Amino acid sequence: MPSEKALPQRSMRFASILIVLAATGFLVVALSSRLLNRVSSSALLASALAALVIAVALHVRFLLLARREQCETAAALDATEREYKSVFDNTLDGIVVFDNRGVCVQANEAARALLGNGQHSLQGKPISAFFSQSGASRGSWNAFLKGENGHGETQILRPDGTAICIEYTLRANYLLGRHVAVLRDISERKRAQEALRESEERFQQMASNIQEIFWMFDAGSKKVVYINRAYEIITGRSCESLCEDPRSFREAIHPEDRVRILSRLSESLEQGRFDEEFRIVMPNGAVRWVWARGFPVRGPAGIIRRLVGSAQDITARKSAEREIARNLDLAEAARTEAEAFRKTSLALTENLSMDYVLDTLLASLLELVPFESAQVLLVEAETHLFLARELQNCEPGRLPPAPATLGARDSRYLMEILATRKSLLLSDTGQEEEWLGFKGFSHLRSWLCVPLVTSQQILGFLSLGDTHVRAFTR
Asked: Is there a single domain that holds both residue 215 and residue 305?
């Protein structure tokens, strides 16, 4: 179905045809009036007038439709103009239109506020008036006209003398001889970027000079996303290797601590806290202790996005703690030994009976050196021994009693002690071929024998035994 806008064109063509036909008819009648004597002149005149009326009516109809179409077009153009005007005046970005000379021909309110002109018009002002370096503006403008468009950042000089940073987009010849510039104030963004850059520089200076490892762990990928140079000093591994493989830090954790630490790290991504001491292994095999602490960085919804923390080398502290513990153990052992000797001396002054003296010695010895079986063997002849006293620190009947008498010649170990007058410690009797032939002692796996010497003579032996390997130390 033809549109209403197409009707005026068809009416125009139809009216033109009718007018031409009518004019042709009149011309034919006028030229051939002599040949048409038989036809009534009134009938011809009526027909010509009817054709003329129809042509005029159609022509009037065409004019009316054309007028209405013109009005609609004007209304549409007016609406478009008002819409353009509204957008132009109310947009938040500054819009400035220039001619070929770079002179402003139109600017919106945002542009006037941005350029510091307020209510004053910008029309007639050259583009060089807005640049903080007017010498460079002409070259920039000519380069823009050649390139037909542009985008970038620059500084402009406001009438009050202040310079601001703007982001601009230029489009040349959007209409012939007209060029538009869209301007946006980015001074705040620039200041924020500068503040962020300075903050990052301070952070990098701090992170690069502290002796502790500073690290960031991503909760989503479970990878290290940042590490400072202290990582290289403490672990002996490069930061580049960690960048290439963010999970390579696991290799530095001591195998005995690895499962525990990785498990605690996974838990920390939910709980938000990490505080562990563990060992790391250097590439050369050396072992160090580190103390790592982590704290959560949460997103807007409260979800932990990162774990940020530090790790410091505490190897020296651990060594000091071990040394302190060893010294405390030695001090405690010395105190226990002194207390045992004090009790023994006190007991001996109260009763000098041999049986009482030997029982007191064995009881005091048990406080210093744990054992399962102890005997005091006294020399009766040169190589003949008899059991003077025995104490078993285990369930009754678990260990067989030592023989009442012994011949030192029957045991290589007793003869060795008689000859050297030195103590003998066997940490594992299972490695001694002749031990099974040691009557009364073959069931023991650890054995310590000390000669009792006075005035260069051996009075006997103090024998300690245990059914466990390496029960005694030197």
From this structure: yes
Structure confidence by residue, pLDDT tens digits, 162-186:
888 888 888 888 788 888 888 888 8
Q: In this predicted structure, which of 93-107, 208-222, 304-318 has the lowest mean pLDDT?
A: 208-222
Q: Is residue 342 part of a domain?
A: no
Among residues 86, 121, 143, which one ends one of the domains?
86
pLDDT of amino acid 51: 64
Other beta carbons less than 10 A from residue 414's beta carbon: 23
93 dihedral zone (left: phi>0; alpha: psi -120 to 50; beta): beta
At 87 the pLDDT is 77
CB atoms within 10 A of CB 461: 23
Q: Name residues whose C-beta falls within 8 Å of residue 404's C-beta, 6 or more positions apart in sequence.
A: 386, 387
Distance CA 266, CA 285 (A): 27
Residue 445 lies in a domain: yes
CA gap 154, 152 in Å, rounded: 7
| Domain boundaries, position 263 | 210-313
Q: Number of folded domains in the chain?
A: 4
Name the one residue in this structure whose structure tokens are 């402003």. 104
> Are 77 and 115 part of one and the same domain?
no
Residue 305 lies in a domain: yes
Residue found by looking up tokens 């005035």 in the block? 455
- Of 199, 198, 235, 197, the residue nearest 215 (C-alpha): 235
Cβ-based neighbours of 307, under 8 Å, separated by 6 or more: 216, 217, 219, 265, 268, 269, 272, 274, 294, 295, 296, 297
Among residues 284, 288, 287, 268, which one has the least CA distance to residue 276? 268
pTM, to two decimals: 0.45
Which positions ≥6 away from 139 have C-beta within 8 Å?
none
Q: Are residues 282 and 226 in the same domain?
A: yes
Do residues 309 and 214 both lie within one domain? Answer: yes
Write the DSSP string, 155-184: EEE-TTS-EEEEEEEEEEEEETTEEEEEEE
180 and 95 assigned to the same domain: yes
**H-run or E-run covering 68:** helix 41-90
Residue 389's domain is classified under what CATH number? 3.30.450.40
Is 200 within a domain? no
The domain that holds 224 is classified in CATH as 3.30.450.20
Which pLDDT score, from 0 to 100, does residue 95 have? 86
Diameter of the chain measured on Cα atoms: 190
